[in-house]
Amino acid sequence: MRWLGSGLIGSVGAAVLLSTHPWYLDTVADGTTSRMSSMTVILAWFFILATISGTVVIGLEPESAIEVRATRAALGESNRRAGIAAARRGAAAGAIVSAILIVPSSVAVLLSSRRGSGGAWGWIALVAGLVFLSILVSHVVAANAPKREPVTEALRHSHETRPFRIRAIRWYVLIGFVVSLPSAIVRAVSDGGSIWSGALLLVVGTASAGLVGVLIEWGIRWGIDLAPVAMARLARRGRGPVATLLADEALARRRPRGAGILTAIAVIAALIAGTALVSSRSIDGREINIVIGDVWRDGGEPCVGSCIEEFRQTLADEPIVGAIVPAITGRLVGGDCVGEVYAVDPALAGAADPVFARVLRSELDTIETEHGTCGLDFDGNWIDAPVAYSPGSGIVLIADANTVTAQDDTLVPNALLVYAADPNEQSLDIVVDTVAERLGLEYVAPVSMTRVENVVDGGMSVPLALTAFALLLIVPLAALVVAGVAERRRDHGTLAALGATTSTLRTAMAIESTFRAWAAVIVGMLAGLLVRLVVIGYSAIAGSSDDSIGTGSGDHLDSIPWSALGIAAAAALGAIALISAIAAASISRATPVEALRPEPAGSGTERRSR
Amino acid sequence: MKKKAAEAAALAVKARGLTKIYGEGEAAVTAVGHVDLDIPQGILTAVMGPSGSGKTTLVHLLAGLDKADAGEVWIRDQKLTGLGDRETAHLRGRIIGFVFQGFNLLQTMSARDNILLPLRLNGVPRDDAWFDELISMLGIGRELSRRPYEMSGGQQQRIAIARALITKPHVVFADEPTGNLDTHASAEVLSHLRQACRELGQSVVMVTHSPIAASYGSNVILFADGKVAGHITNPTPDSVLAGLDALAGVER
User: Fold this and answer.
1) Which A positions 486-515 lie with beta carbon below 8 A of chain B?
2) SS3 of residue A455 by DSSP
3) What ipTM was reported for this prediction?
4) According to CATH, what is the number of the domain B40-66+80-251?
5) Contact assignment for A498 to B163 by CB distance below 8 Å
6) Residue ranges of domains in chain B
7) Using the 8-state DSSP alphabet, how is residue A240 labeled?
């Protein structure tokens, strides 16, 4: 079972690796930082992989494994020794899975005609390392979960109901603190930040993790406590009262509940990751600041046309400023399309930034199917043009300015995209100050995009992101379904001996799996929403739309693609139902005697006893 | 004919040519080999034999918990072999009761729910008078709201006996019911099984390796090498030991 779990983790890792890296982007060849390589995102991916790995490894363990661990503890094996042994097993499994993971990834890189020179290999190594670490850590954790105690106590703890304890959330708080700390430090020492903003970020990150912990602990408990009510209602309607009784009994156990909590964590991570993946679509890792947009001269006249040209010429000889591209500002309206948009001439954009132009063209190719519901409002006029819309990214790039001006010839450039000559965060701040000073403006408000990275051209598309999201839901939940069947093998034997029919047992298993999946998804969704609300609150307090918490960019709830996530969740639940049905079908194949026969952990050998 | 019918009706369990073989070819082991067996109603019958003699397999086959490779089994006039899923479930839930050596109670259910579980599984309404009588006989009134992990082994086994009797089955099979219990608890459980036979007219078939436990029965079936090796009527510990010694002599 552990190997099955490790294999699943390897598959998820491969999916992450193959679907996220922009293999063929020039920026990779240039050594530019890819969107996946920031410390926060790496931590997030590690958290996701480790959570799923832990869920799968622990969830797939048979009941007998707990007894074996407890017996070894009773015979004097120390926790340290058990941990070391588990680490060895985890290292072996991790090494093999990582090695297997590297092979198809390497083939994919070699077959890619536009692969990068070095970034791709580094990314493979990074993901393989994360998978290795995740498997190793999950094995060590599994070696002591539940806490190793003498046999009787272990069994008692695996079955008794567990009251909610506030202490249970300390781990969530700790995780929140650890994850927030690097971002807080970066924010505190950066030019734009301060110690206070760093401290605020740390407090918000830690507190939000604690809140998520409370939600998970209470949510799962609430869901489990609600189960008898739901079951009773189903039973009254004559939909298998016995099956609902048995499903309720299974849900009341502590061990599945613990696994359910892990699942909820995985779902939350998946939700956050899914949201972030979907919402962080923007242009490739270029340092751009839009320093002028809808500005007004001292006399109260809007700065458009020649005024913008004057500004452009003023900035042209400024060494710290790189390319300058005139743009027309407008607004996105309709559906979940919210934000300011900028129309640029592809030719000018291409001359200034070929990557940007290529990304824009690529985006426009897929625009009709992805964001066909967005409307464009330029200066009070509706413009019919395709939109390269990035939910929540703060900056929205649209089709060429020629399309816009062709429909409304009164529109002239009223904004500038200003590139820094040296693309790093510090120079951007200097550019902002310099531009404000040179143009005689009191304040230049950068339009949020201080460091945008690509997932458009070669990165993860929305359907792919949602597929990954659904996959992240399905893997741990499916593992729990399989584990549930294995875990209750003896109980099914007993129940069959007491007269339960095969269909009753199958129905009970299906009800249990479905209920658990729904509980996990609902709690995960709520927790994800909570996190997003906290981030929005933080952004409002800090006056920034900074994404250093790593939950995806954007500061509006509108930026969360709820409908798409709902479809992904429904697809995942459908898959869980299918897996449940397949798993449940295996229940009846054994006679009660076969089901009750002790089965050595980790062995498929059937032991015959007379 | 009437006499034969009456005899057949007086049998709790009947087996003919019952066979169970594990493995294939040279590795095949005959756990139960062509066994013919008649177990009368209303008494406690003990099945004894050396370890590995096949007595547990025999009881599993008689109770319909395992599939025989050959032969047939009847519980009263109900034939066990060749039944479908629903018929098998009905048989296990209504005709047969089973007491496991390891109790096999569902840990998250209270004792009361464990006892009533077979009724729920089989859609049988609860007979309060019968439930109260069982609780009173087994002395488990105080344990009803407790979970199995909160009880001693003896208490758990008494709950398991109540669960086996709650459906008023034709016959109760017990596989080493005192195997996990101390002497005192064993005596209590065995007394309750005998009491069920004497006072309730229950038929009980019990696998045991203890001569003392076997002496609680009215009849002992000696089993060796997958075959019936003898019978002892009105057994005492000494007579059972003598029977076992005789078996050992045969084996030597």
Assistant:
1) 490-491, 493-504
2) coil
3) 0.80
4) 3.40.50.300
5) yes
6) 40-66+80-251
7) -
